[in-house]
Design a protein that fits this description.
- By secondary structure, this protein is of the alpha+beta class.
- Helices cover 44% and strands 10% of the residues.
- A 4-stranded mixed β-sheet has the order 3-6-9-10. The protein has a 3-stranded antiparallel β-sheet with strand order 7-11-8, sandwiched between helices.
């Protein structure tokens, strides 16, 4: 084995000395890049030579005794393992951990992918091992925008490329923190875990993305709380076990605790509780890592950054938001929970006893860019995700899937589509391909489903009769049937006799558009820092915000469709719908304050369901 001597300062100590290197000496030494072996292929002698080059002769005998090789090196970043080896000095532990970090940081074996959104991106070998599995490859057959492809011919992109993009951005953001703020103690294993969480966060999506968990499952399994995030965790475990990837994780220093951390990033009910820390993967001091892939606090995360850029690109919709600026002007700051007054011009009251939270904060001048982000979200929902034609195609495809659920089976499988959520082997077959499998089946019991799917292909869609918009009065999902009856009651009874199936032919859809925090301004949940005080963060001042921000942050579209395309029937329904809507607004205005508050809360609960059916 040949080594080329490094030309820069080292931390060399005498080969015969047992003195510890000084941890306070600036660590300009890095592992020589001229070695002709990748670190995973090192034997014990290679590691010993590298330790000597790095001035760590004092630990050479301990590494020899443990017969540590490249394939087992990464796991020794664990402080407990080093102490068990007899390396107990805090200074020396830090130096050895730094040595291993520098060795394993080598990206020469990373795979380079040319992405149309982010350009050339590097993928860690462990990420590549996950990608090269049948369970991950199924994402190539699940459209990112579901049935939006029937409306936007450019919306042909899939969950596969989105997942790679989120992986890339997750690593890019956390590396920026690592470079700018070394005091955060971010390790390479932290970065890799966050990258894998970004890569695997959508593993649990079913056919046509949000249609499956947002509409289909609630219809065929009433009361079910199953969501794709839950399935992503189950599919991740299944993927690791089925493809024997645990040794690969161990090779790069990832433990069972790290896998738990990955899963905690993908699915948790809310933002981390700083006071009563219950997450196991990482300590409270690294709570900010949980808000990189999925941010429950304010919705600013790399998942959205990728699909905003990717969806806009594929749909041909302008995107004014620049996620690279957000990365450049982001910092992790320990922020005390502050009582933010309603009047932002007033001085904030700070509770000195409040818990500190490690939050991802942004430069105050970036507030405009963040408003552009939330406006982009709203634009994508109104123009694409909740498009009137997309939504009715969704409805029709769901009808077909519901009718087919009882009789459709994959070859050699006895489970229904709705039962696949409890069996990852079956669920791994659930992709957009079910559309054509049902359509081309010879099973006579699938004729009704096939008839509906053929209507979609022939563009024989249910007719949009009317749409009304409300900014403050929200109709609830649970009240749709009752309100449908009220609409029908407004139609002349004599004329209605010619249409005995009127109730079955009318479809009401509710679409809620917002900035991601229901009726709240999401910027109120973001902390900002200034150029002069980069380590102090607080809410944005009113004088720093644009005067063009919205007065309302939510609105509801109430749409009514008809399966019956008779022009007389459609006109009757349209008149009845418009008359009903005027009365609906008056009726809501007459509610007591308590009733209005209850209605608003119910609307907020319903909103999550209506929005996530096709979007985010």
């Amino acid at each position: 084995m040949h080594y080329t001597m490094c030309s820069y300062t080292t931390l060399l100590t005498s080969a015969n000395s047992s003195a510890e290197p000084d941890v306070n000496v600036p660590h300009t030494k890095r592992i020589c890049a001229s070695r002709d072996k990748y670190w995973l292929k090192w034997d014990t002698d290679d590691i010993v030579n590298a330790l000597i080059e790095d001035g760590l002769e004092v630990v050479v005998d301990k590494f020899k005794k443990e017969l540590i090789v490249g394939a087992t090196l990464a796991k020794y970043q664990d402080k407990v393992l080093l102490e068990n080896m007899g390396i107990k000095s805090v200074k020396l532990v830090k130096l050895v951990q730094r040595f291993i970090e520098n060795v394993t940081k080598d990206t020469s074996q990373h795979k380079v992918v040319n992405d149309p959104i982010h350009g050339h991106i590097k993928l860690h070998p462990l990420c590549v091992a996950i990608i090269d599995t049948p369970e991950f490859q199924r994402l190539r057959s699940i459209k990112q925008l579901g049935n939006g492809y029937f409306v936007y011919p450019g919306a042909s992109h899939n969950r596969f490329e989105h997942s790679l993009g989120v992986c890339h951005l997750a690593g890019k953001l956390v590396r920026a923190f690592q470079d700018r703020q070394p005091e955060l103690g971010i390790r390479n294993t932290d970065i890799l875990c966050v990258e894998i969480a970004g890569l695997c966060h959508d593993l649990g999506h079913g056919p046509f993305s949000h249609l499956f968990d947002g509409i289909f499952i609630p219809m065929v399994v009433p009361g079910s709380t199953w969501k794709h995030e839950q399935a992503s965790i189950e599919m991740f475990d299944y993927l690791v076990a089925e493809n024997n990837l645990k040794p690969e994780f161990e090779k790069y220093g990832l433990t069972e605790l790290d896998r738990e951390f990955i899963k905690e990033q993908i699915e948790r009910s809310s933002k981390p509780d700083q006071k009563n820390w219950t997450l196991n993967g990482r300590p409270k001091e690294k709570s900010f890592l949980y808000e990189v892939v999925s941010n429950k606090r304010n919705g600013i995360d790399v998942d959205k950054w990728d699909y905003f850029a990717r969806d806009c690109h594929m749909l041909g919709i302008r995107n004014n938001f620049d996620h690279n600026r957000c990365i450049e002007f982001s910092r992790v700051i320990s922020v005390r929970k502050e009582v933010i007054p309603v009047n932002k011009e007033a001085k904030e009251e700070v509770n000195s006893e409040a818990e500190e939270e490690f939050q991802i904060c942004y430069r105050d001048k970036e507030v405009g860019n963040l408003y552009d982000m939330f406006h982009t979200r709203r634009t994508l929902h109104s123009r694409a995700y909740q498009h009137k034609t997309t939504k009715i195609i969704e409805h029709m495809v769901t009808e077909a899937l519901v009718k087919a659920d009882k009789d459709f089976r994959f070859d050699g499988n006895s489970l229904k589509m709705s039962e696949s959520i409890d069996d990852m082997k079956t669920f791994s077959q659930m992709t957009d391909d079910v559309f054509n499998l049902i359509l081309n089946s010879t099973n006579e019991n699938l004729k009704k489903s096939q008839k509906i799917l053929k209507k979609v292909l022939k563009r024989e869609l249910y007719k949009l009769v009317g749409q009304n918009k409300s900014k403050t009065k929200m109709l609830q999902e649970k009240d749709k049937q009752e309100e449908k009856i009220k609409i029908i009651e407004k139609i002349d009874k004599e004329k209605l006799k010619d249409f005995p199936k009127a109730e079955k032919h009318i479809i009401i859809q509710l679409v809620t558009l917002d900035y991601g925090k229901k009726d709240k301004n999401p910027i109120d949940s973001v902390m900002f820092y200034s150029k002069n005080e980069p380590n102090k963060a607080g809410p944005i001042r009113q004088d720093q915000e644009s005067s063009f921000i919205p007065d309302h942050f939510t609105e509801q579209l109430i749409r009514i469709y008809s399966k019956n395309k008779d022009s007389e029937f459609i006109e009757m329904v349209r008149e009845a719908f418009n008359s009903w809507f005027e009365e609906f607004l008056v009726r809501v205005d007459k509610k007591s304050p308590d009733e209005k508050e209850q209605s608003s809360n119910s609307s907020n609960e319903t909103e999550g369901k209506t929005v996530t059916q096709t979007g985010r």
